[in-house]
Amino acid sequence: MISNMDLFLRLIIATALGGIIGFEREVNNRPAGFRTHILVTVGSCLIMILSIYGFIGYGPDGQGGEPARLAAQVVSGIGFLGAGTILREGTNIKGLTTAASLWISGGIGLAVGAGFYLGALMTTMIALFSLASLRILEKRIVKLRRYSEVKIKGIGRPGFIGDIGTVYGKFHINIKNIVLENDPSQEEDEYEYNIQITFFIRTPPKLNRLALYNELKRVEGIESVIWDDVHVIHNNTIL
Predict the structure, then answer these.
(1) One Gene Ontology cellular component annotation (predicted)?
(2) I need a surface site. Which of 6, 8, 111, 191 has the fewest CB within 10 A?
(3) What is the pTM for the complete model shown?
(4) What are the sequence ranges of the domains in the chain?
């Protein structure tokens, strides 16, 4: 039977490791953050401990039960929890990484509950590296492919996105994806409303940025343009 000290130690380690992954998600403002990851990891740890030590004497010939049975349900159960973090906005899907981080947190909790501390620690470090460091590499790869993120804020109106797309077409810019965000304070029946459109675009090797900016600022309704986190147009003025 597990001692009280060992039980306490395993739950504390599970809390710490789940908190490390959850903190990274919290900092990046993801649907499931610090508290959620801790709860998943500690809950998984407790279930694993219960699976191993909670049914001693209840199995065949007075032996223990089958520890894998109860623990196996954690994997499928967390799948449902992770599905709640996945959101679809048009053709854009968000939350897959957070769902995966919840799933791996459950695995870490199971490992700690079974006493595999080294495996749980190494998995936590690998997960943290994947979430934090590889994001930087991912952004660099996107830049090498000449993909840019352009955020355009303005007054939404019929044909607004089409006019912007026409400008992009004039400069042979390919649109990879579009994410549309409306101002939640606006009434649904208002004809004009504040809007932010994020374009993920691929630009040609030789792009005349100044000419493009001049064309964009002529589009009716555009208030500001942010190109790869750099403010390039504001109030009809090129910065």
Answers:
(1) plasma membrane
(2) 191
(3) 0.56
(4) 4-141, 145-238
